[in-house]
Write a structure and sequence with these properties.
By secondary structure, the protein is mostly helical. The protein contains 2 helices and no strands.
Length: about 45
């Protein structure tokens, strides 16, 4: 049985991109703080 994909609102996506472009935090730390995970349930970075 497949799990439903997580969806994000446009505002969340724009803010995530803005934070990434600022470059104040490593991408792995930012992904963890935002709760971003890949399809296997692991943190993206």
């Amino acid at each position: 049985m497949r799990k439903q994909r997580q969806s994000f609102r446009r505002e969340f996506k724009l803010e995530a991109v803005r934070l990434m472009e600022e470059g104040k935090k490593p991408s792995a730390e930012l992904a963890s703080e935002l709760g971003l995970r890949n399809k296997w349930g692991r943190s993206i970075y």
